[in-house]
TrEMBL record:
Gene3D superfamilies noted in UniProt: Vaccinia Virus protein VP39
SUPFAM superfamilies: S-adenosyl-L-methionine-dependent methyltransferases
Protein name: Methyltransferase domain-containing protein
PROSITE patterns with a match to the protein in the record: SAM_OMT_I
Organism: Geovibrio thiophilus
InterPro entries, per the entry: Cation-dep_OMT, SAM-dependent_MTases_sf, SAM_O-MeTrfase
Keywords: Methyltransferase, S-adenosyl-L-methionine, Transferase
A GO term for molecular function: O-methyltransferase activity
Pfam families (alphabetical): Methyltransf_3
Gene Ontology biological process terms, A to Z: methylation
Length: 208
């Protein structure tokens, strides 16, 4: 879907300034029409991982492992658990990320996984179905270590959050309204603090 967050030409310029990384994964995602973080979002993840140096990372909606790879490039020592409900994507991730150490991919719902484990995390990246973001927040926030970071992807819904309701396709209206409510919920959820960035299709950072 077309990203309307940035004015025409700016996205292309931003990408031209970034050294190409993980092109094989981006090409695979485009060729097979599977979700994958955009290059600038991946670069943000890499930078955040290099600064935060998370010992433990949870990815919800890890897909084919593109975001996993960026995080590992930022902090190679991180232990990463990638969860995705789609077994086919998990199978691809295991192949594409076979050389990455201390990474585990699991095909399971995030709620089911978190209900059966007691792990806590320094960094959580969430890139799943947008309507479950409120549930994901309530589920993961008690599992984030002090000083940790939760990252939600695509929260600006390709620019639709800034549109009038009549301008938004009926297909996306419910999701748009739910994301608007979710952002308000995060903003008012103390003691966490949050920052919304116009990177990719919108990235929401929440730290403790």
């Amino acid at each position: 879907m077309k990203n309307d967050i940035l004015i025409p030409g700016i996205l292309e310029y931003i990408r031209s300034t970034v050294r190409a990384k993980n092109e094989d994964m981006h090409d695979y995602a485009k060729k097979h029409d599977v979700p994958s973080v955009e290059p600038e979002t991946g670069e943000l993840l890499r930078l955040l991982a290099s600064v935060l140096k998370p010992a433990s990372v949870l990815e919800i909606g890890s897909g084919i492992g593109t975001s996993t790879t960026y995080i590992k490039q930022g902090f190679p020592s991180a232990k990463i658990t990638g969860i995705d409900h789609n077994p086919n994507r998990i199978a691809v991730a295991k192949t594409l990320c076979i050389e990455l150490e201390n990474v585990e991919f699991i095909s399971e719902s995030a709620v089911a996984y978190l209900n059966r484990t007691a792990e806590t995390y320094d960094m959580v990246f969430i890139d799943s179905v947008k309507r479950i973001y409120p549930l994901m927040w309530q589920t993961v926030k008690s599992r984030v270590n002090k000083g940790g970071l939760v990252i939600f992807d695509d929260v600006l819904l390709f620019g639709m959050l800034a549109m009038e309701t009549a301008e938004v396709s009926k297909k996306y209206r419910q999701g748009r309204d739910e994301l608007l409510n979710f952002i308000e919920e995060i903003k008012n959820d103390m003691p966490a603090s949050s920052t919304l960035l116009p990177v990719g299709s919108g990235v929401l950072l929440v730290n403790f």
